[in-house]
């Protein structure tokens, strides 16, 4: 049975340093030992670390010296980190304060127990805060949502445990910043969940395209004569609940969010591959029956016409996964199908590695 398999090829320890040369040498040794030529390597997806992506001596550049046709890409999941990199200073300060508050509450077993008792006495639905960690997937969104939901309980707890944090936490603007951050990172979490999993190359790019369109919608709503914050439920409800809110604060929130969204949109457009109508590889792979053959390279034009006129293929296409369809017709239309396979076989994220790390972390934790 022909099918795409997504498996970890191998893993090895880097005994000393983790430079690009060390990583390249380890892979080179493995390929040679198993008789695998570099020509079989089509794409390399990394998390964007300098050792991997350096323009002159990074791992990808070293690999391209062995096979110039290798396509290097940045993990589509880790690009959500752009959400943090593009935060205006005031929102970034609020994010750091949120992390500081959570870490204070969780800093000792005593604090954790006292906070749990307080929540029980106040009949709160939730009784614990989630630690913020520097992992790159879901930490910030989960932590911020929990902190916002327990904001009243946290305020009472800080009143007696940290005067400095209490003053910062009860600042007039902070709670509005926290509401927006909670809403925004919750959206980022939903995007990340869509980007995880296997067989997701084109689905991932569809999700990113959808996200950029949503950013544009949010920007338009904010530019109304009366700014519309409905895209951010927690912030919107907080604004509705607050009586006689100064218009200057509403305008400040509008400007801050607009600045963040514009910066984020620009970063995404700079980082992500162009999947516009001019990219024939994506259009051909996604739907070979709708593409104009005139935009294709000459060596696959006639074979694409044959495929488009194949009535059985037309029936099979909407009823099969892309990977299964192209593998089925690879023997019949090898040149066209191979172009699609080159795109589909590439990893759009380091999900497989990250899920392996998560499994290892669970084994070593109390949940094992």
UniProtKB/TrEMBL annotation:
Top-level taxon in the UniProt lineage: Eukaryota
InterPro entries per the UniProt record, alphabetical: RNaseH-like_sf
PANTHER family: EPM2A-INTERACTING PROTEIN 1, LOW QUALITY PROTEIN: ZINC FINGER BED DOMAIN-CONTAINING PROTEIN 5-LIKE
Name of the protein this chain belongs to: DUF4371 domain-containing protein
Organism encoding this protein: Homalodisca liturata
